[in-house]
């Protein structure tokens, strides 16, 4: 079985599309997996995703078929007789990277058929090419964190490959994640912001730069052990996202509820207009914050944590 994790954008969403740095972390407990089974000779390749209520053949016009074809081309593999079954515990259309994780697991499953193990940057790039074909102007952060499966700083460069740097983690950090229950399409939110930016770039560029400098501070806070300071920076990022017009009243309410329940900080995460928010909490507060988020109308909540890296080597 081949799998890939879900992800959270810790800071810097949207500004990352405009070449500012952003931070993302994998959520190991939520995963997408692909099981490959041989099919009768001549059957070709079919993809089954009972969790998503979908079945399709390789030649269908769908993002995953496109990715499968790109991967077979890369591997120089003819279409195999294969039944691929996808399962995923990552909620779709909510900012947790379900599309990228399913894609990365699919690439790994096909590579296994060719007896190959692909490097993370190759998997990431194949998923990115396919996301670009179907989702407009993705920054590439989702496919990167999901394929590398470690906390990363990601920044697009004016030319060439993006900057990808592993993040130092100073202590075990605990997060509560809540789903607003409002499905939101990344392409729509990113497209709307792009239209507004095109009409009047200067004020948006100022906001993006402010988010970028906050991201650098958050990167340092993540490597420290100062919870309240880290939390405050995350909450500041939320305020800047509100100003950009990508939050919504439900996300704002959930952020407020988390802060009132004693979280060190909270923000929406991902594209916004729905989807998820995250709260940085002490281990002792995690369950209470989770409960209060439920009471405030979250349809699903999770706890996830980040382990310290051995950064003092
Ligand atoms: O796809 P989501 O909801 O995890 O969010 C994408 C993050 C954005 O910065 C808004 C878009 C992008 O491509 O980076």
From TrEMBL:
One Pfam family cited in the UniProt record for this chain: GHMP_kinases_C
InterPro entries, alphabetized: GHMP_kinase_C_dom (IPR013750), GHMP_kinase_C_sf (IPR036554), GHMP_kinase_N_dom (IPR006204), Mev_gal_kin (IPR006205), Ribosomal_Su5_D2-typ_SF (IPR020568), Ribsml_uS5_D2-typ_fold_subgr (IPR014721)
Keywords associated with the record: ATP-binding, Cytoplasm, Kinase, Lipid biosynthesis, Lipid metabolism, Magnesium, Nucleotide-binding, Transferase
Residue spans crossing the bilayer: none
All residue ranges annotated as the GHMP kinase N-terminal domain in the record: 69-148
NCBIfam families, sorted: mevalon_kin
A Gene Ontology cellular-component term: cytosol
Pathway in which this enzyme or protein is active: Isoprenoid biosynthesis; isopentenyl diphosphate biosynthesis via mevalonate pathway; isopentenyl diphosphate from (R)-mevalonate: step 1/3
Domain of life: Bacteria
GO biological process: isopentenyl diphosphate biosynthetic process, mevalonate pathway
One annotated GO molecular function: ATP binding
Phylogenetic classification of the source organism: Bacteria, Bacillati, Chloroflexota, Chloroflexia, Herpetosiphonales
Record's protein name: Mevalonate kinase
Domain GHMP kinase C-terminal: 220-297
Coiled-coil positions: none
């Amino acid at each position: 079985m081949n799998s890939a994790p879900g992800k959270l954008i810790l800071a810097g969403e949207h500004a990352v599309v405009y070449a500012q740095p952003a931070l993302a972390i994998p959520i190991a407990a939520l995963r997408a997996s692909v099981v490959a089974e041989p099919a009768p000779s001549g059957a070709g390749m079919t993809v089954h995703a009972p969790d998503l209520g979908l079945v399709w053949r390789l030649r269908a016009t769908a993002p995953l078929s496109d990715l499968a074809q790109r991967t077979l081309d890369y591997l120089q593999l003819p279409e195999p007789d294969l039944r691929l079954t996808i399962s995923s515990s990552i909620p779709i259309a909510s900012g947790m990277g379900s599309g990228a994780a399913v894609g990365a697991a699919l690439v790994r499953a096909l590579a296994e058929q060719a007896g190959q193990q692909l490097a993370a940057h190759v998997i990431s790039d194949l998923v990115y090419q396919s996301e670009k074909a179907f989702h407009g102007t993705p920054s590439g952060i989702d496919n990167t964190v999901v394929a590398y499966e470690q906390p990363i700083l990601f920044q697009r460069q004016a030319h060439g490959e993006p900057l990808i740097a592993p993040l130092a983690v100073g202590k075990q950090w605990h997060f509560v994640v809540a789903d607003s229950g409002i499905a939101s399409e990344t392409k729509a939110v990113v497209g709307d912001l792009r239209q507004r930016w095109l009409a009047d770039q200067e004020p948006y560029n100022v906001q993006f730069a402010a988010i970028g400098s906050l991201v650098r501070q958050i990167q340092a806070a993540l490597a420290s052990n100062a919870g309240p300071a880290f939390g405050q920076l995350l909450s500041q990022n939320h305020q800047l996202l509100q100003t950009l017009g990508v939050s919504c009243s439900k996300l704002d309410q959930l952020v407020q509820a988390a802060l009132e329940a004693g979280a060190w900080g909270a923000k929406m995460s991902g594209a916004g207009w729905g989807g998820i928010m995250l709260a940085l909490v002490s281990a002792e507060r995690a369950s209470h914050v989770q409960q209060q988020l439920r009471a405030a109308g979250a349809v699903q909540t999770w706890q996830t944590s980040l382990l310290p890296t051995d950064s003092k080597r």
